[in-house]
Amino acid sequence: MRHFLIIILLGVCQWAGAQTRVDYFMHEAARCMVQGQVSSAADLYQHCLEIEPSTAEAIFHLGRMKFYLGEDSLGMEYLYKAVELDSCNCSYLETLATILINQRCVDEALPLLERMSKLQAKRSDVLSMMAKIYANVGRMEDAIQTMNRLELLEGKLPSISFEKFNLYMEMSDSVNAFRELEELCAEYPADMSNRIHMGYQYQLLGNFEQALKIYDEVKKVDPSNPTLQMVMLDYYNMQGMDSLYTTTRDSILFSPSTDSQKRAMLMENIIESSPADSASTEAIMMRFNRILEVVPNDVQMLMLNAIYMEYRKFPPADIAMVMQRVLDVQPDQETAMRWLAQYHIAQRDLSAIEEICRRGVNYYPSNLTYYYFLALPLMNSGNYEETIETLARGLRLRAEDTKAEIISDVYTQKGDCYYEMGKHEEAFLQYDSALVYNKDNVLCLNNYAYFLSLLNKDLGKAEEMSYRAIKLEPDNRTYLDTYAWILFMQEQYAEAERYMERVVPRDSSEHYLLTDDYTGSAILEHAGDIAWMNGDTQRAVYLWQLAAKRGDADVTPLLPKKARKKKYYK
Q1: Which of 78-82, 104-108, 209-213 has the highest mean pLDDT?
Q2: DSSP string covering 342-382, please?
Q3: CA–CA separation, 2 and 489 (whole Å)
Q4: Can you give the residue ranges of every domain in the chain?
Q5: Phi/psi at 392 (nearest 5 deg)?
């Protein structure tokens, strides 16, 4: 007997020693995980299993790590093993159940949730998930029983009662379904919303008499209840009571106390049900005007008004007035801000563009588009340093998902500014960056090529970029002029003439050449130079004189002399 006791004691001591070693290595593994040393932690957990193969905690953590490493099949095997070894550990059960639910294996997750609900009877989140899964797999009675358990924990709540109502209705048990709503109303006798909901359910089933009875009861207690007004509106519509429907609808629309969302919904219904003719448009606009007299600061209604006006093709100036009212009420309303920015750009109103885009960069500093358009008026006024600073700030603060095309355009703008400041190398660095983000940035290709040609530098590179630009936009006369001029600089005069003919056709009238927006003095001077080098001196002088007559600033200092002396000067 004594010998037997010694053997037992030795076994206990060996087990205790092994357990101590396991605890130590488990602690070290946890420390490695905190420090982000995943590989070391895995090795330590594995070592724990070498000491004691049935260490559920080590198996559990290894399972989670396998999922982290993308080894889902092996991870699942480990987690199932951990749950098998320690079926009362709710952390193991919950982890495995969550993964199974995410993988849509709800049938396998249900037994785990059921066990958790027994071990932790007050876990309302577990009961809610169980009820949802029961309902999804068609086990309605189990779902209702689970909702009853949830109700014992949390009390009689509308969310639970409404869910039970829906479950009973799916089972075609309208008696118990409405009993749920009756009990809810009895629990909260002062809350009319529950009674209205019950009445609306009767209405949906076609029991209009019972629905109206409930509505009348609510009306005695709370005659101005906004929810009641909306369901009564639906009631009149379903019953074909057109006069009452219209009166009630207008009463809701023009009441200053109506919720903005409900008012907008009613107006959307009116728009959708109205024909797209002038009479209906006029009637709808009259409604908008009347509503906005009552609630002039309702941003949602103002936006709906503007959207409708755009849909019915109102003049952009009229829509702009409404959008401006939106910003006057809500200065950071981005839809209105974007619309106005595009409108002012189309109108070429530089001062308005600057005002709206300064607002944009202040409220939405990560939106690079506002910086891009703000640069237009700044560059036009010659504020090149401020433009560069503005664009640089936009590039620093831009959102991570900013499109490469707009980033490329901003670098192009910076390049243009540097060139105008006489900082040519800095300009070309910006253009290089622009082409990294968008190799087909046609404006960058053209400007880069043209400025190189003006400096008589890297003409081969300039020709290549300019040719790419006209391939992208073969009818753009500005880009064709650039290519023709680069050919001229390379003394390819006949080829230059062939492209310049597409820019300044020989049959163009004098009036056309003097008034056309795309045929500036610089283009006419280029055309004259090319004509001279091809031996057509009379046409060259004619074009130089027209260029001087137009008086644009983008010509060479030699133009007046060429026009006056009727001779080419280099």
Answers
A1: 209-213
A2: HHHHHHT-HHHHHHHHHHHHHH-TT-HHHHHHHHHHHHHTT
A3: 113
A4: 519-570
A5: -65, -40
- Asked if 521 and 555 touch (Cβ cutoff 8 Å), the reply is yes
345 by Cβ neighbours in 10 Å (0-12 / 13-18 / 19+) ranks as: middle
Residue corresponding to tokens 């577990």:
126
Residue in the block written with tokens 């300044």: 504
Helix, strand, coil share (%) of the chain residues, nearest 5: 80, 0, 20
Q: End-to-end CA distance of the chain: give it in Å, rounded.
A: 122
Task: Report pTM.
Answer: 0.70
CA distances from 139 to 146, 167, 390 (A): 11, 10, 62
How far from 78 is each of 53, 64, 99, 231, 346, CA to CA, in Å? 12, 8, 13, 55, 64
Residue 194 CB neighbours (<10 A): 20
Collect all residues with Cβ–Cβ distance below 8 Å to 186 and sequence separation of at least 6.
none
The DSSP secondary structure of 89-124, one letter per residue, reads -HHHHHHHHHHHHHTT-HHHHHHHHHHHHHHSTT-H
Assess contact for 252 and 242: CB atoms under 8 A.
no
Identify which of 534, 229, 85 has the alpha carbon closest to the alpha carbon of residue 543: 534
Reading the block at residue 288, the tokens are 């908008």
Long-range contacts of 214-222, Cβ-Cβ distance < 8 Å, separation of 24 or more: 218/192, 221/192, 222/192
**Has residue 529 got a pLDDT over 80?**
yes
Residue pair 151/131 in contact (Cβ under 8 Å)? The answer is no
- The predicted pLDDT at position 86 comes to 83
Q: Output the six-digit token pair for 399.
A: 């959102």
Which residues make Cβ contacts (< 8 Å) with residue 459, sequence separation at least 6? 452, 453, 486, 489, 490
The per-residue pLDDT for range 214-230, each reduced to its tens digit, is: 989 998 998 888 888 88
Question: Has residue 361 got a pLDDT over 90?
Answer: yes
Going by C-beta distance under 8 Å and a sequence separation of 6 or more, which residues neighbour residue 521? Answer: 547, 548, 550, 551, 552, 553, 554, 555, 559
H or E element in which residue 66 lies: helix 56-68
Residue with tokens 């309605």: 140
Q: Classify the C-alpha dihedral 547-549-554-556 as positive or negative.
A: positive
Distances (CA, A) of 50 to 21, 27, 40, 45, 253: 11, 16, 15, 9, 75
Q: Tokens 């056709």 belong to which residue?
A: 505
Which one, of 542, 550, 547, 569, lies nearest residue 558 by Cα? 569
